[in-house]
Predict the structure.
Amino acid sequence: MGGRFSRRNILGWIAGAAALVVSIGFQMGSFEYQVWAVIGVAALVVGAYFLFRFLEQTRHAKRLKAFAEQHGWTYRPEGGELLTGLKGFPFGFGTGRAAIDVVEGTYSGVAAASYTYSYDQQVAGEYAGEQVFTVTQALLPAKLPRLDLVPEDAGTRVLSQFGLADIDLESAEFNRTWRVLSDDKRYAIDVVDPRMMLALMRNRQQGVAVRIDGDKVIAWSAGVAHVRDLARRMDLVASISKAVPAHVVRRYAELEEQRRAGEAAREANAPDWANTGGVLNSGRYTGIGVDADGDGVDDWEQRSR
Amino acid sequence: MEWIVGILIVLVVIIGIWAIAQYNGLVRLRNLVQEAWHQIDTELQRRHDLIPNLVETVKGYAAHERATFEAVTQARAAAAAPGNSPAQQAEQENILTQALGRLFAVAEAYPELKANQNFLALQQELTNTEDRVAAGRRFYNANVRELNTKIETFPTSIIANMFKFVKAEYFETEDPAARQAPTVQF
């Protein structure tokens, strides 16, 4: 990489400065100056590390902005609201969770976004380092239950976070490449049909795991991905979004509609006290024994499942 | 001498626990296969229930296509008959699918029929049902695959043979459109 602030130049400056500090310190002769020389070198190294990080982040943001402009997308430095509702590793872990360098737009007809997600890892209440991930997500045509697809090369750190058994499908090659993890085997088999398997195999990338949860499909991997990988990651999530079988979309769209109708009926028929939070009530109207809409089903039975 | 007896007892207990675990696993899988089959059966029933309405709708526009209607009606009756094994049911469903294909081919010649809202709704519902049958088939076959693999592989095959577990049949339906699709290669 070229430029005044290239890695090579910075390393050269630091090496030169360190050599200067060490030589001055040791030529001074006294032990005290030598100690200060070593401390000076250590400070230079630490400073260099943070300088590298800052410059790398700035360069990455610039590349993302250029990428976004090139494709008619938008770039914004922060997007914490994108993390809302995301659960399961690596989301919901640690403290100081943040989504930065957000690129958003429509990819192949699907609303998608990509960002860098980080959190501060805590071990026994102590800070144990920052964890950084690249996350790419796309909207799904319906709200779906959680399903994890983890590549076999994701590494033991990732694989150990999932306690569910792998579900085997019809393709031996697919089973060797991906782990399908869900607590509902039928749902997993319905979603990961041959068309979905094809989309996953064609667009797979080393170490990138996929999660379907709610109205989003998320592809995530450890570290900050280079901008040149962004299009492929968008391709992955967009193709998954489009490959969800129509009967699955229909079923869960109907269930969501029923759930909303049930909720609306409960809200509409609830007495005031049930909608007021207090010490001794949950603020939720159960509707037991009440059939306000006259459909022959108690309000409390109007549930999604 | 006593320690040899002790070791033998421990070995027998371990083998006994393993055998029980394998037996229970096989029972669980067999029940899963049966449950999966019942789910397919429900969808197939739904499919069979849609067909009389469909035939009546088409009859309203093409009453003279009697041979086609009779073929569909007979195929439906055979498929809806109880007591078919998965392989037999698959064969009956294939015959029904072919008969339905001819029915829809007849409908193609009648633009007013193709525009009929009832016909369109029935056609869509039939498509939805067939999607669910296909999904149910995949789930059923996945469970059959798991059960059969367990029955055939050593050492679970010892327990399977001892307790007379038999392999389940796959439910394979023929889809002429699928046969025309290019081979998918990863």
